[in-house]
């Protein structure tokens, strides 16, 4: 049997141990829980992602889960993007990315932020890049469709967005790259004026795919490319640019000329 005098010392030591855990400098409590493990995108894949998105001097690129910053840096250094921004939960990656941007000589046009990508306003992006996971992509999908302007290019390394089919895809060194172009919203009723006549059309939309029918039950089949809509009615091709509640004809080979539509 232990002497009674040992008990107070044991309790004191235990109390100090618990206190020391509580007074750790926040490292355990403040370490962010990462949604995605860090695996850098190979440089040839980075180049192809930016090429598929046709990044150029007018573009503001946002990279979600930016890691060491290579996509945002390459967008400016190699593709001449106006500016780029990367966000990542891991503060170590942000520090690394900032050093890399400095070494690449693009720190005046590329910035990085430690934070939660789900809380970031991405609405200003012309190009959105990501190497995340399918589950994360699916959480982002409604934000992408409802927040980004039609025509914004979205590129993902390796992971899809399930039933939202990409507009293009490619394989680079065994890695799949997906490109989507955010479609305008056209579902609803439209009054079409063409060749001195008019007809009503009711459109439905599933991402970039468009279907519907006219008031005389003629089938409509079409597809969106950002703000551009192509559809056929009675074997006639209509190509137009969506501008709010109007669609104005765009010149295209074999297409009806001078037509327009108004949302009704």
Question: What does this entry look like structurally?
Answer:
- With 264 residues, the protein is α+β, with helices and mostly antiparallel strands.
- It folds into 2 domains: 43-182, Vaccinia Virus protein VP39 (Rossmann fold, 3-Layer(aba) Sandwich); 188-263.
- The protein is built from 6 helices and 15 strands.
- It has helices spanning 6-22, 27-30, 43-52, 70-77, 91-104, 134-147, and strands at 60-64, 83-88, 110-114, 127-130, 153-157, 168-172, 175-181, 188-194, 197-206, 209-214, 219-225, 228-233, 236-243, 246-249, 260-263.
- The strands form 2 sheets. It has an 8-stranded antiparallel barrel. The chain has a 7-stranded mixed beta sheet with strand order 3-2-1-4-5-7-6, with helices on one face.
- α6 (134-147) links the parallel β4 and β5 (153-157).
- α3 crosses α4 (70-77).
- The chain is elongated and about 65 Å long.
CATH class of the largest domain: Alpha Beta
Order of the strands making up the biggest sheet: 8-9-10-11-12-13-14-15
Distance between the termini: 91 Å
Question: For the record, what is the CATH homologous superfamily label of the largest domain?
Answer: Vaccinia Virus protein VP39
- Tell me how many strands there are: 15
Q: How many structural domains in the coordinates?
A: 2
What is the 3D form? elongated
Structural class: alpha+beta
Mean pLDDT: 90
β-strand amount = 25-35%
Q: Are there runs of 5+ residues with pLDDT below 50, and where?
A: 1-29
- Using only CA atoms, what is the Rg? 26 Å
What is the ordering of alpha helices and beta strands? HHHEHEHEEHEEEEEEEEEEE
What is the CATH topology of the largest domain? Rossmann fold
CATH architecture of the largest domain, please? 3-Layer(aba) Sandwich
How would a textbook summarize the main sheet? 8 strands, antiparallel, barrel
Figure out the total of helices.
Answer: 6
Q: Work out the helicity level.
A: 25-40%
């Amino acid at each position: 049997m232990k002497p009674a005098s040992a008990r107070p010392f044991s309790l004191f030591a235990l109390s100090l141990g618990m206190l020391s855990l509580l007074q750790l400098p926040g490292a355990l409590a403040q370490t962010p829980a990462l949604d995605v493990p860090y695996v850098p995108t190979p440089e040839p894949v980075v180049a192809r992602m930016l090429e598929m998105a046709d990044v150029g001097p007018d573009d503001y690129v946002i990279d979600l889960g930016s890691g060491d910053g290579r996509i945002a840096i390459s967008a400016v250094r190699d593709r001449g993007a106006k500016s780029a921004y990367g966000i990542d939960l891991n503060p170590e990656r942000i520090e690394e990315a900032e050093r890399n941007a400095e070494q690449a000589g693009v720190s005046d046009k590329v910035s990085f932020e430690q934070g939660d990508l789900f809380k970031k306003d991405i609405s200003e992006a012309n190009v959105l890049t990501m190497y995340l996971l399918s589950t994360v992509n699916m959480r982002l999908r409604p934000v992408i469709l409802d927040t980004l302007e039609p025509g914004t290019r979205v590129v993902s390394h390796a992971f899809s967005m399930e039933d939202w089919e990409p507009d293009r895809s490619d394989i680079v060194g065994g890695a799949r790259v997906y490109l989507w172009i955010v479609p305008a919203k056209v579902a609803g009723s439209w009054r079409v004026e063409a060749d001195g006549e008019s007809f009503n059309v009711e459109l439905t939309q599933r991402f970039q795919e468009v279907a519907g029918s006219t008031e005389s039950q003629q089938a409509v089949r079409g597809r969106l490319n950002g703000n551009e809509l192509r559809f056929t009615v009675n074997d006639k091709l209509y190509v137009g640019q969506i501008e709010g509640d109007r669609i104005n004809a765009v010149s295209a080979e074999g297409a009806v000329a001078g037509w327009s539509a108004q949302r009704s």
